[in-house]
Amino acid sequence: MARRVRACAWYRVLPLVIVALFGAISFTYTFAPSALFKVFYPLDYEEYVLSSAQTHGVDPYLVAAVIKVESSWDDDALSSRGAEGLMQLMPETAQDMIDKGYVDGARYSASNLFDAATNIEFGCAYLSYLLTYFNGATDRAIAAYNAGMGNVDDWAQEDTALHNAITFPETQAYLFRVTTAQSRYEDLYPELYLGK
To answer: Looking at the whole model, is its pTM more than 0.85?
Structure first.
């Protein structure tokens, strides 16, 4: 009889352990999200991000989100297509930003895109150019950063929301990932961009 009571006691404790485990997970998620999410959404080169974003009138949270999605903060990143650095810029795009007067070519070189400060400067200039071109439409600028301005112009002619008109699954995913990361950075680092 004593053996039978002990076996029943074990079955009584198991649900309590499961409830306690879920309670601990919920408590951690509710009261420590910042510590948890900052591991997945790090922020490096804050000074460069803030300076270049301010110079070009771009939201620094957007810059951080693009960097997170493009290179995951790897300043040595190189794509198979030749895009370089943190914001994955093509050297031709960087040179175009100099030619259009967005970046001072005497101060920044389009051939130095693995340098964090240089890459962020050109990336912010390019985002500024795209935002200006699309009259401040952030979703269009983000999509164009991934798929090119011509494609976004075509999609914008559709009679639906841009996300639904995008025909490249990669660009749909990119738009979602960047906007999600931008929201995360706003939530996780409010003290950094008070002048936003």
So the answer is: no
